[in-house]
Write a structure and sequence with these properties.
This protein has 368 residues and is an alpha/beta fold. The termini are far apart.
Length: 368
């Protein structure tokens, strides 16, 4: 048995679901949704496949979907079509009687995996030696529950790509410096937009366990974790230069998880919701090149036939881990939970959940 077959076996999906037709699988999902009614809530992240999104009760970014899961108090079963950290956030925010499921446990986030709790604790120890009690941690919601819990315990908060600037401003009212996990690009772009110079930003390398910074240590205001989104980092300056040369009328809009130089050369940059709304509100006939995940770009293209929309990187493929959840896994998950066979439940331990909720709540209190 090869590695892929071993992982498949561990994942546990019976062969019968792999052999079913699309029509059969869709009928299973549709029937169970009808039978369970308000007891079932299926949130679907923007980056999910259309075959799954068609059954979502709500679509959105990870935090919005977790909040909607919390609000749907009648829903005993939350089947989260997203990735592991999103399901964790939903479990943190929902009531004890609600169970959160992830249809495919292989659905993760490479960025979230770039900062584990052991690396973070070691980094914090070293950084407090360097900076004393002048630092506060912030973490992107695209992080594990353990990281959120660490941040909450140490007085910090979570951020989203929509409210990152607001949260960084808040953090600087608390302490002189911030540590921003786990995406260096969102942290760098946010701090730069707030007037912090690139020469005031250091990078913590969790692999080498050292601070990467050329300036005098007292000048560093932002310590960026050396992590990134594997999708958004693949949009390059070359992509933008090609677009400018071959279609100068094309407006370029990218996600702030892209590199600083890519954001700087784009016309607009913003969260997933910002990108969706920008295209929705754009005039008919306008042309757009989008720098974000391919499943979403394709959906935007299909939803706006009156506009010329393309991916900024024509060779981009969908996020591999976001793409894990498919119709067979969704059908299997729903049939299993209806039969009382609780596969793939996401449960965050209570002490971790309590501190993680602190970090989330500090953000939510400011963002309402």
């Amino acid at each position: 048995m090869n590695l892929f077959e071993t992982v498949e076996k561990m994942n546990g999906i019976p062969d019968k679901y792999k052999n079913m037709s699309i029509k059969e699988l869709e009928e299973i999902v549709r029937s169970i949704k009808q039978r369970l009614g308000r007891k079932l809530f299926i949130p679907g992240h923007h980056y999910q496949k259309d075959e799954v999104i068609q059954f979502a009760d709500a679509t959105g970014d990870s935090l919005k979907l977790a909040q909607l899961s919390e609000e749907n108090i009648d829903a005993e079963f939350i089947v989260f079509c997203g990735v592991h950290f999103m399901a964790e956030t939903a479990d943190i925010l929902t009531a004890p009687h609600q169970k959160v499921f992830l249809p495919d446990m292989r659905a993760g986030c490479s960025m979230a995996d770039m900062a584990d709790i052991y690396q973070t604790e070691r980094a914090w120890e070293e950084l407090t030696k360097l900076f004393g009690d002048t630092i506060i941690p912030l973490t992107y919601v695209n992080s594990t529950a353990a990281i959120k819990s660490f941040v909450g315990e140490n007085g910090g908060a979570t951020v989203t790509s929509s409210n990152a600037e607001e949260m960084v401003k808040w953090a600087f009212l608390q302490k002189e410096r911030i540590v921003f996990l786990p995406d260096q690009h969102l942290g760098r772009n946010t701090a730069y937009n707030l007037g912090i110079g690139l020469d005031e930003m250091a990078v913590w390398n969790p692999i080498d366990q050292k601070l990467e910074y050329d300036g005098p240590i007292e000048k560093a205001k932002v310590i960026l974790w050396k992590g990134h989104c594997s999708v958004h980092e693949n949009f390059t300056v070359d992509n933008i230069q090609y677009m400018r040369e071959h279609d100068p009328e094309m407006k370029i809009i990218v996600h702030p998880e892209c590199r600083r130089e890519v954001v700087a050369l784009s016309d607009l940059a913003g969260s997933t919701s910002f990108i969706i709304q920008a295209i929705e509100h754009a005039e008919s006939g306008t042309a757009w090149a989008i720098g974000t995940e391919m499943n979403l770009v394709k959906r935007i293209i299909n939803n706006h036939p009156d506009k010329h929309v393309v991916s900024l990187n024509p060779h981009m493929c969908p996020c591999l881990t976001m793409n894990r959840i498919d119709l067979p896994h969704l059908a299997w998950c729903l049939e299993s939970l209806e039969d009382g066979d609780n596969h793939n439940i996401i449960q965050v331990e209570q002490p971790v959940a309590e501190n993680a909720k602190l970090a989330l709540q500090r953000m939510l209190n400011l963002s309402r």
